[in-house]
UniProtKB/TrEMBL annotation:
Keyword Kinase on entry: no
Protein's recorded name: DNA-binding GntR family transcriptional regulator
Keyword presence, Transcription: yes
Organism: Microbacterium thalassium
Gene3D superfamilies for this protein: GntR ligand-binding domain-like (1.20.120.530), Winged helix-like DNA-binding domain superfamily/Winged helix DNA-binding domain (1.10.10.10)
Length: 216
């Protein structure tokens, strides 16, 4: 029987998640200094726990450690964001293919409902909701794919590029283009069409690269 995590480990894991969400949500801006004492006071934890959390986030590429100056939120350039999406093409196409092979009837019904919500959010101009639904779709496809290695790598890449993804969702006219692309991915997956799911995913991500170049 495996031992339960120590309380200190639970605190550090929870703190890492809270700071991660604060960075991805824009509470901490790119290049902003992360002061251990301030974070310690804000979250009611020790500075050692903060230091450990920042080290974990540094490993994820969200935080940059500065020699003798502590840490700051790492800024991801558009060029680097493009490289990340290029890597994601292979991994997400694989997950879409696997999802199409493994999806159950219940999961297919869930994705059809999500498809309807995605289309509705764009038609009613709810772009923040649309961004959240896109993230939900990405998560479900990864879960359905059951490809642990690809999912682990994608989670790290998603964290690094999340701020650019948010900007893309609000880019003028982008939602009207990407919503049908997401619908096409869902249609192929629920139809148990691995080739179609892979092709639709690749097409969608190549479109993201084209829009990222417009942000340069």
């Amino acid at each position: 029987m495996s031992a339960s995590p120590a309380p200190d480990e639970d605190v550090r894991a929870d703190l890492t998640q809270q700071i991660r969400e604060a960075i991805l949500g824009g509470k901490y801006a790119p290049n902003q200094r992360l002061i251990e004492a301030d974070i310690s006071d804000e979250y009611g934890v020790s500075r050692a726990a903060v230091r450990t959390a920042l080290l974990h986030l540094s490993g994820e590429g969200l935080v940059e450690r500065l020699p003798n100056k502590g840490a700051r939120v790492r800024s991801i350039s558009v060029a680097e964001a493009v490289e990340i999406v290029e890597v994601r093409i292979g991994l997400e196409s694989l997950c879409a293919r696997k999802a199409a092979e493994l999806i159950t009837d219940a999961e297919a019904d869930e994705l059809r409902q999500l498809r309807a919500e995605i289309i509705e959010s764009v038609e009613t101009g709810q772009l923040l909701q649309y961004s959240r639904l896109n993230h939900q779709l990405d998560e479900r496809l990864r879960e359905i794919s059951a490809h642990a290695t690809a999912v682990q790598l994608l989670e790290r890449l998603r964290a690094q590029s999340a701020r650019h993804q948010f900007r893309l969702a609000l880019h003028p006219g982008r939602a009207a283009v990407s919503a049908p692309e997401h619908a096409a991915i869902i249609d192929a997956v629920v139809a148990h069409d691995p080739d179609g799911a892979e092709a639709a995913t690749r097409h969608h991500l190549e479109g993201i690269i084209a829009v990222l170049h417009q942000l340069e």
